[in-house]
# Entry
Amino acid sequence: MKRMLFCLCLVSYLVSFQTPANGALPSPSARQLKWQKMETIAFIHFSINTYTDMEWGFGNESPALFNPDRLDCRQWVRTCKEAGIKGIILTAKHHDGFCLWPSKYTEHSVKNAPWKSGKGDLVREFSEACKEYGMEMGLYLSPWDCNHPDYGKPEYITYFRNQLRELLTNYGDLFEIWFDGANGGRGYYGTDSLHMRKIPADYYGWAENVRMVRELQPDCIVHGGDLADVRWVGNEEGYAGTTHWSMMSPPQKPSAEIPYKLQLNTGFADGTVWLPSETDVSVRPGWYYHASEDHQLKSLPKLLDIYYESVGRNSLLLLNIPPDKQGLIHPADSACLLAWKKQLDLELANDLLPGNCRFTSSQSEGFSRCMDGNEDSYWDLKTPKGFVEINFGKEICFNRILLGEYIPGGQRVKSFTVSYLSGGKWKELDRHTTIGYKRILRYPETKTSKIRIDFKDALENPLINRLSVFHAPVITEPPLVRRDRNGRVTLISPDPHSKIYYTLNGETPFPSEKNLYKTPFMADGRQTIKAIAEGGRGRISEVSEKIYPYSKKEWKVIGDTLATDIFFDERSDRTWRASNRQEPVVIDLGQEVTIEKIDYTPDQFRYAHGIILKYELSLSSDNRHWTAPIQGEFSNIRNNPVTKSIQMPPGSTGRYLRFKSVETVHGDAPGIAEMDVVYRTAGEP
Ligand code: FUL
# Structure
C-alpha cells in the first residue's frame, strides 16, 4: 500500500509530463546529473526506533527514551567518507513523528528528550559534521506521522510544510530530500489508542511541497511524492534490473499486468521522462540498529553484489548504516564498510585499456574519447549499430568490463553482446540490454587476447564515454552453515572448487586436514561452528560463524510433519504454505522454557508469497490453556522481507506456541520459510 501510493502519484506525474518538444530523448537535468555522479550515498536511520528496537514506531513513544550518551555525528560522517560515500541522508523525522531537531511546531522532538537536557539539535550537529568533512547532506522527512493528532486532516499539511520549511532553511544546503512513501495507516496520532487513519491519494499536495524545495533549495533532489526527480528502484534488497532505463512512463499496460515494482526496477525504453533510480538497502537486515542483528551484517561478497547490481546497472546506491543506542556507528559496520571500499578499489583499480592495445571499430573517429577518463567526452558511433574489437597483443585474463553512456545525450543502447577470442574462434560471452550512466559486467576469470563488443540496437547512435576492462582479484565467499532440526550440519561454499575448513571449539579454523569438511556431520545441542572456504590460489574467505544454544530435535509442528521439516531446517529456499489463511500453527518445543524472542523468516524467493504482515501469538504449557494472544505486525516487511523478530515480554514461559497469520502482504495464504525460538531453559540464568 505504502509504495503503491508512491507509484500512483508517480504515474500522475508522468502522465502530466510531455515528451520533450523537440522529440529528443529524455535526459537528466543539471541537478539529476550532479546527483547521478555521486554514485554511492548513505542513509542514516537513527531515531526513537533505535531505542524501542522497532522498525516502524506507533507514535506514542516517549521522547524520554531518546538519550544517546556518546552521539558523534563526526564519526558517522568520517566513517562514510572513508568508505568513499559522497552524501548522507539522515532520518530527521521517521513515521513515528519524533523530530531530531527542536521544531517550533511540536513537542515530540529532542526538545523533550534527556539527550543534552533537551537542548540538543541533532540535525544541526549532523549538518556541521557534513560541512566539516565536505560531505553532501540530505534529510528524510516522513510525510506519514503516527504522532500528530491532525494527521489525515487538512491541518496536518500546514504542520508538515512548516517543518519542511524549517529543514529547508535552517541547516544549510541539501543535496536530497527524501519524502518517504510508506503509510501503514496505523498509529496513536496523539490519542490513547492505536487505530487506522487512511489518506486520499492527493492528500499531501505535492506541487506546493516541491515548489517549496525548488524555491528554498534549488539544487536539492526530491525523492518521493508525485513530482520527484528520482524513483525508488522497487525493492529494498539492493538490486536494479539487468535491463534498467532511467526513463519512466505511464505503465504500458494496466499495472496489474506489469507489477509496479517491476516497472520501477526496469524503467521504460520509450519512457517520456528522465527519472533515474535510487537503490536503497541496509547494511543490516533492518533499517534501524538492533543488537540482535550485530552478527547479521551483509557479507563482503553480498555488498559487492549490491554495488555491481546497483551502480553497475545504471542506478545510484543508497546504503543504510544505522548508529547504535550510544549514537555511534558500530565497529562491525565500520569494518564492513571499509572492507567493501578496499575490495572495490582493488577490483576496479587496474584498467587494462588502453595500455598497448590496438582497436578496430565501426567508427574510428573519436573512439579514444571513451577511454580518456573524461566523462564529458564520448565516442559517437554515428549509427545505432556498431562494434569495437580490442586486441591486447598477448593473452590476458579479465573478469570485469565497464561501459558508460554520455547521459546528457540521453540513454540510448538497447542491446549489445560481449565476445572473446578462444582457440582462434570468436565465442559470445553474453548478451545484454541497457548501459546507461554506468554498466559493470562480471565474468569468471577469462583468458583471451581479444575482446569484441557489438552494439546491436539503440534508440539513437550510442554515445559511449566509458570503456574499461579489469582483472579483479577474486574473493572467496564464506561458506553457509546449516543445521537441521536433528543436528545434522551441512557446510556449503558458493564456489564449488573451494575447500571448506571448520571447528567446533570456537577457534578460528585454518586450512588443515583435520579441519577439512568432507561430508555433513552430526553436531546437535549447544554448538559454536566456525568455517572458512579456501578458493583458488589460496584465497581464504571471511569466517562464517553459527552459535547454537541448544538442540531443536524435540521441536515439532503439531499435526504437520512437512512444516516440522521446513520450519527448522535453516534453509531459506524452502517455504511452507498454509492450506488456508487463518489456520494457526502450533509448535511444540518439547519442554517448558522461558522464551526471549521468536524469529519469523518469510519466503525468500525474489518474488515472494505468503509474507505475513500481522500475526497473533499465544503460549501454553499444556496445549489446552493459552495466554491472551499477542497481536503484532512485522513493520516494513512488505519491502524488506527479511527475518523479523517478535521480542517477548519478560517471563514469557511455555512449551507450546500458537502462531496465527492475521494478514499477509498480498492477501494470500501465509508462508513460513523458517521459525526460530530463542529461549532459556529452567536451569539457565
Ligand atoms: C521505507 C520505510 O518504511 C522504512 O522504515 C525505511 O525508512 C525505508 C528507507 O523506507 O518506506
Summary: The CA atoms of residues 175 and 220 lie 4 Å apart. The chain has a mean pLDDT of 93.
